[in-house]
Specification:
globular
Length: about 350
């Protein structure tokens, strides 16, 4: 039976060559996204989210390389494709809403030129057909079609983001990857953009991978969530399970930093410290140095992802004590006493 997964990432390793050695930015990541579903990748800055995206679509920096694993998209391993072959996949079947969407439109040309370039060169449409399609796309994301003739500097931040979403959908791709699509926007515009993405996902049956450091974005838009830390996935599963019943201390810590309007007392708790050096990562759990619940074994033995519920997996040595740890994780004092 053919797999329902449109995207399957298996033991993917992406390393950067630096003056100090190889930095293991993504180190053995595995996950799958089924057709028509959405996955959120969350974690603090530097955890490897954007590198993972760049590796999937093969646009890594010159010092970056895929050192192992596979990325199977629609039955084909993208890591084994030639550059000319992967170019045929980008935009047409697999598109990206980039992290710097606000600056991704060419400032010296009207916005419509970006659409005509993609639709005519990649989509093989005539100019008339491409112009018609550009109007359809602008309408789809709630933009006035008259603005197609405007220059990027005449767009607000929210308008630029909508335009980039429309551009990503130009050739009706099977998978859209959104890399921090609302980071630079105010909360009102963020909500508008997320509503657009949710509507398009429902109406077009989009398969979506959402990269963000904001748990609230994932909670609003995604079916599943994968929590990344220091180049690895440490918890993954349905959004409702992972956020309401977090099984990894790092996920618990992220949840503590997420405002809950239903609580009368709403103290946000931060996680002290910084992620480890990925040129020389620790042998055991990579979160151990910042974890209030670490054991001796955590510094020497790396925990494996194991099932903890329906499609819910976590990597922690103390899963058998998780209920007690979840209660302790809610207390400010727990995170103020990080063991040295």
């Amino acid at each position: 039976m053919k797999s329902l997964s449109l995207l399957e990432v298996n033991d993917l390793k992406i390393y950067y060559k630096t003056s100090r050695g190889m930095s293991k930015a993504v180190d053995g990541v595995s996950f799958a996204v089924d057709q028509g579903k959405s996955l959120g990748l969350v974690g603090e800055s530097g955890c490897g989210k954007s590198t993972l995206v760049k590796g999937i679509i093969r646009v890594l920096a010159g010092n970056g390389s895929i050192s192992g694993g596979s990325v199977t998209f629609d039955g084909n391993d993208l890591t084994q494709m030639t550059e000319s072959s992967i170019r045929q996949v980008r935009w047409k079947d697999l598109s990206l809403i980039p992290q710097a969407a606000m600056d991704s439109l060419n400032p010296v040309y009207p916005v419509i030129d970006s659409f005509l370039e993609i639709l005519m060169l990649k989509g093989k449409l005539s100019r008339a057909e491409a112009t018609k399609r550009a109007h359809e796309l602008f309408t789809m994301v709630g933009l006035d079609t008259k603005r197609l003739r405007y220059y990027p500097h005449e767009f607000s931040g929210g308008m630029k983001q909508r335009a980039m979403i429309a551009l990503a959908l130009a050739l009706s791709p099977k998978l859209v990857i959104a890399d921090e699509p609302v980071t630079a926007l105010d909360v009102i515009v963020q909500n508008q953009i997320l509503r657009v993405l949710k509507t398009l996902k429902k109406e077009l049956g989009l398969t979506l991978v959402m990269i963000t450091h904001d748990i609230s974005v994932v909670a609003e838009t995604c079916d599943d969530v994968a929590v990344m830390y220091a180049g690895k996935i440490i918890e993954i599963g349905p959004v409702s399970q992972v956020l309401k019943n977090s099984m990894h201390p790092y996920t618990m810590g992220l949840a503590n930093a997420f405002p809950n309007l239903k609580k009368t007392e709403n103290t946000l708790i931060s996680i002290d410290g910084s992620p480890p050096d990925l040129v020389d990562p620790p042998k055991g759990c990579r979160f151990a140095a910042r974890c209030p619940f670490k054991l001796e074994a955590c510094a020497h033995e790396e925990p494996s992802l194991v099932p903890v519920g329906n499609r819910h997996f976590a990597a922690c040595h103390r899963l058998d004590e998780i209920t007690a740890l979840q209660e302790k994780a809610k207390e400010v004092v727990t995170w103020q006493k990080i063991p040295s």
